[in-house]
Every structure is written in C-alpha cells, then in structure tokens.
Amino acid sequence: MLKDYYSILGVAEDASPAEIKLQYQKLLLIHHPDKQQQKQPGQPPAHELIPLQEIMEAWECLRMPAQREFYDSSLKAMKLRANGQVNDDIDLDDMEYDEESSVYTSPCRCSGEYIISEDELELGVDTVVCSTCSLIVRIHYEVADEDDN
Ligand SMILES: [Zn+2]
Fold first, then answer.
1. Could you report the per-residue pLDDT of 88-117, keeping only the tens digit for each?
2. Cα of 112 to ligand 1 centre, how many Å?
3. 92 Cα–ligand 1 center, Å
4. Of 77, 80, 99, 118, which sits with the fewest C-beta atoms within 10 Å of its C-beta?
C-alpha cells in the first residue's frame, strides 16, 4: 500500500517543487520532537506530530522530478482502485514482457496500452490506467517474495 506523501506533507498534488520544499522545511521545524520544548507558532500538540521519518520519506520521494512522476502515476492508480473504478482484470502472465525496459504491456481495446514496470510491481502497484483512454485494469500476479520489512 502506497502512502499518500502529499497528504503527509499537506500540499496539493500539483504543488510546485518550491512549495513542497518550503512545506517540508516548515514541517521539519514544527514536528521535530526536540523543538517541542521551545514553543513555535503553529506547533501541533504532541499527539498530532507527524513522525519525522514520514516527513523525510515523503520529501525524498517528491523532491526528484522523475521519481515524483513515477510516484504520481502509482498514486493515481491506487486512488482509482480505492474508488472501485476498475474496468477489467488481466493476468500478468498474459502480458508482454520487454526485457530491455523491464516493463509489462498489454493492449487496450482502444489501441492504447496498459503498461506496468517491475519497479511498480515491487511497490505493490497492481492497477494501471490505459496510456490513451481512461480504462483501468487490475493486474493479477503472484508475489514471489513476501517481505513486509
Ligand atoms: Zn485504452
């Protein structure tokens, strides 16, 4: 399950890199346990503190444009799935695998394609939006290595 880094940071999904950075720095300041002693304006009560690790994880993911783009598409698919808007189910075994780019593809009826990368599969993404239309498929696959950290 992907975490929603945007809601952790409290920024819009289309926030600019500068906005994200500013918000990250602000959160670090007000959510840092060491700063709880000295009262800061806008400081949340202790039970509302966001773990620093989560703030940093969100920042590490969103600060790099390529990584953010990848994360965005995964997040979008996850949200669509949460809303139950899945049009079809396909089996990973039925998809074409491209060794060079490590992606699985499957044709959509609109002549677009469903594309999912191994990286996304490893993240636990199993829902893909067509590259051309708005149809969504859920991909079924066996998880080879159960690792919950
Ligand atoms: Zn399509």
1. 899 999 999 999 999 999 999 999 999 999
2. 5
3. 17
4. 99
